[in-house]
Amino acid sequence: MSAMVTAEEKRRKLGGQAQARTQDRIQPGRGEASDPTGSQGGSQPLASDQARSQGNTENPAGGRNAKGAIRRAAQLAREAERNARAKQGAKGKGTARERLDLLFDSGSFEEIGRFAGGDIEGGRAGAAVITGFGLVYGRKVAVYAQDFSVRGGTLGSAEGAKICRLMDQAIDLGVPIVALIDSGGARIQEGVAALTQYGRIFRKTCQASGFVPQISLILGPCAGGAVYCPALTDLIIMTKSNSNMFVTGPDVVKAATGETISMDQLGGGQVHASVSGVAHYLGEDEADAIDYARTVLAYLPSNCQEEPPTYAYASGRAEQAAAKRLATIVPSNDRQPYDVLDVISAVVDYGEFVQVQELFARSAVVGFACVEGHPVGVVANQPLVDAGSLDVDSSEKVARFVNMCDAFNLPVITLVDTPGYKPGSDQEHAGIIRRGAKVIAAYANAQVPLVTVVLRKAFGGSYIVMGSKAIGADMNFAWPSSQIAVLGAQGAVGIIHRRDLQKAKEEGRDVDALRERLAAEYEEKTVNANLSLEMGEIDAMIDPEQTREAVVGSLRTLASKRRRRIVDKHHGNQPL
C-alpha cells in the first residue's frame, strides 16, 4: 500500500475495528471460538452433552444416535483445526479459519456446507475448502478459503461443487467474492473430474466478472491450471513469503529447458508484483495482505448495479494548506522530475491514496481515493520514472484499472504529465501498438464521470489517450504552465526546421542558439495550452491551488451521469 496512507490509518477513517479484532483472535487457544459446530473450546461441553447429563431421555434410540453424530462432528472439527494449526504454523502460515477471522468483522462469518465432502463416521471432517459469507465493514462478502492441511488443499469434485455453489449464491445475492488460495492444485487421484471442476470455476468467474468485485489472495502455492482462477479476478494479492504462482513448476522448467530456478524466483510474490504485473499488491505477511483486501472492498460497491459506499467528510484547514502546497510541487522546468504522489495527496480526502500495482510499471500510478467522501479511481503519470512516459506495461496497467473503475461505477480522475509513448525498438517489438491501444479502448468505452487535469505536459498520442476531451472525458482542465502539442518544442524544431538547422551548420553559424530561439518561438505559438482552450478541448485554465476545487465541482456536476447504449452490439473487440 502506498506510504501515503497506512492500512491502520485507513481502518480508522472507515470506522473499522480490524486491529482489535485481529489481536483478540490470534491469542493462543482462541481458534475454537470460530468453530461452526458451536464448540467454544476443547473443554467446553456441547449443548447435546449438557442435555444428556440432565437426563434427557426423549426418543432414546434416535436421540442418542443424533447426539452421538453431533458430538463426533464437533470432535472432528476441533481435531481438524488443531491439526491445521500444527501443519500451517510450522510453515509460518495461518489456518484457513484464522485467515477468515482476519478478513471478516468479528463474529460475522456464517459457514455453508461445513461437512460437505467429508465422512464423519470415517473420521474426515470435510472438504479441502471452506465456504461461506461474512461482513467486511458491515457489508456482506462471499468467501472460499482453501485448506492446505486437508489433502494439500487440492481441488476435487467436492471442493469444486462447494466453490461453484458459493459463486452461484454470490451472483444471486450480488455480493463480492474473495478467494483465499492455498492449494496443491487439481487432485491427481480424481483425474479429469478435478480438471472439470476448474473449468466450471473458470466459467462462473467469467460470469461474475464486472458484476461483482472478485479478489484473490495467494497465501500459499497456486500452480498449473489453478493459476487462471485468480488470473480472471479483479485483483490478485500476494505476500513476500509463501505465495507462489506459476503454470509450470521449477522441476518441469528444468526438465524442459535445463534452467535451474527456485519457486520464489520463478513465481514468488516479489516477481509477480514487480516484474510480471500479475499481482496487484505485495503484502508483508498474511495479515497485511488480508487487510489490503478489506481496504479495497471499502471503496467498491457490492455489485455493478449499486453505487460505491460513501463516507463522512469534513473539510478544514488541511485542504487549504494542501491547495497552497500544490503551487510548489511541480517544477517549472519540464525536464525536472517530481513525485506525482504529492499532487494526488493534495487533491484527495485526507491525503489518503491506496495504490494498485505500486511496484509494477512505475511510470504510471493508479489507485483508490475519496473526494468529499465519495470513492474515485485516480490515474496519473509519474515523472520520477521515465519522465512519465507510457510503455507497454504502464499502458496495460492504466487500461485495466480504468476498466475496473468503469465496471464498478467509480469516477476516474486523470492527472497528466507525459512526453508521450516511450520510443525504442524494444517497445515496438513488445507490441506498443497493440498494448498501447488498450488505454484508448478503456477511456473511450468508459461511461463513468471522467475528469482530467493536465499538470505540465501532454504530447502526441499520449495526450489523446490519457483522458482527453476528444476520447470522451467530461471535464478537462490545465494548469497555466502546461504544454499541449503534437511534440515537445525540441523534437518539433528538429523536424520542422531540419533544413534551416542544416544550413546554419554549413554556414558555420551557432546551431544551438538557433535551435533554442526556434524552440522558444514554437513553445510560445504552439505548445502552450491556449490553443486547446480556444478549441474547447480544455474547459478551463486553473491555478494549481484550484485543482481540488475543480475536481470537486466537476464530480458534483457529473453525479447524475447515467450509462447509455450507443450502438446495439454484443461487445467490442478491443486489443488483448
From TrEMBL:
<dbReference type="InterPro" id="IPR034733">
    <property type="entry name" value="AcCoA_carboxyl_beta"/>
</dbReference>
<dbReference type="InterPro" id="IPR029045">
    <property type="entry name" value="ClpP/crotonase-like_dom_sf"/>
</dbReference>
<dbReference type="GO" id="GO:0009317">
    <property type="term" value="C:acetyl-CoA carboxylase complex"/>
</dbReference>
<protein>
    <submittedName>
        <fullName>Propionyl-CoA carboxylase beta chain</fullName>
        <ecNumber>6.4.1.3</ecNumber>
    </submittedName>
</protein>
<feature type="domain" description="CoA carboxyltransferase N-terminal">
    <location>
        <begin position="60"/>
        <end position="312"/>
    </location>
</feature>
<feature type="domain" description="CoA carboxyltransferase C-terminal">
    <location>
        <begin position="322"/>
        <end position="557"/>
    </location>
</feature>
<feature type="region of interest" description="Disordered">
    <location>
        <begin position="1"/>
        <end position="93"/>
    </location>
</feature>
<dbReference type="InterPro" id="IPR051047">
    <property type="entry name" value="AccD/PCCB"/>
</dbReference>
<dbReference type="GO" id="GO:0003989">
    <property type="term" value="F:acetyl-CoA carboxylase activity"/>
</dbReference>
<feature type="compositionally biased region" description="Polar residues">
    <location>
        <begin position="36"/>
        <end position="59"/>
    </location>
</feature>
<dbReference type="InterPro" id="IPR000438">
    <property type="entry name" value="Acetyl_CoA_COase_Trfase_b_su"/>
</dbReference>
<dbReference type="InterPro" id="IPR011763">
    <property type="entry name" value="COA_CT_C"/>
</dbReference>
<dbReference type="InterPro" id="IPR011762">
    <property type="entry name" value="COA_CT_N"/>
</dbReference>
<dbReference type="GO" id="GO:0004658">
    <property type="term" value="F:propionyl-CoA carboxylase activity"/>
</dbReference>
<dbReference type="GO" id="GO:0006633">
    <property type="term" value="P:fatty acid biosynthetic process"/>
</dbReference>
<dbReference type="Pfam" id="PF01039">
    <property type="entry name" value="Carboxyl_trans"/>
</dbReference>
<keyword id="KW-0436">Ligase</keyword>
